[in-house]
Amino acid sequence: MGRKKKEKEEKEELALFARPGTSIRNKTGSWRVMKPVVNKKICIGCKLCQQYCPDSCIKIINKKSVIDYDYCKGCSVCAVECPVKAISMEKEDK
């Protein structure tokens, strides 16, 4: 057996192939220490929080932000980007 073929077989033996995951299957909300809370009286429904959310867990319903806590990791990007400061970060109660 040639050297290159043997090296290729050794690499294939070491390779680990895992199924790709998605955040839909892997609820990541339990990772959170702080959680964003939307003040519905202040929220203007501008959608900036939705656009900046890295986990796509914010939806606009009836012109107000709604956070899906099953997937929110508590990164606070939404609170930082909110132009009217309608989103505050609160300690997670577990």
What can you tell me about this protein's structure?
The protein has 94 residues and is α+β, with helices and mostly antiparallel strands. It has a domain at 27-91: 2-Layer Sandwich (Alpha-Beta Plaits), CATH 3.30.70. Helices cover 23% and strands 19% of the residues. The protein contains 3 helices and 4 strands; from the N terminus they run H-E-H-E-E-H-E. The strands form 2 sheets. The protein has a two-stranded antiparallel sheet with strand order 1-4. Strands 2-3 form a two-stranded antiparallel sheet. The mean pLDDT is 84.
Query: What's the arrangement of strands in the largest beta sheet?
Result: 1-4
Q: Estimate percent helicity.
A: 10-25%
Order of helices and strands: HEHEEHE
Gyration radius over CA:
21 Å
Please identify the top-level CATH class of the domain at 27-91. Alpha Beta
Structure class: alpha+beta
CATH architecture of the domain at 27-91: 2-Layer Sandwich
Taking all residues together, what is the mean pLDDT? 84
The CATH topology assignment of the domain at 27-91 is Alpha-Beta Plaits
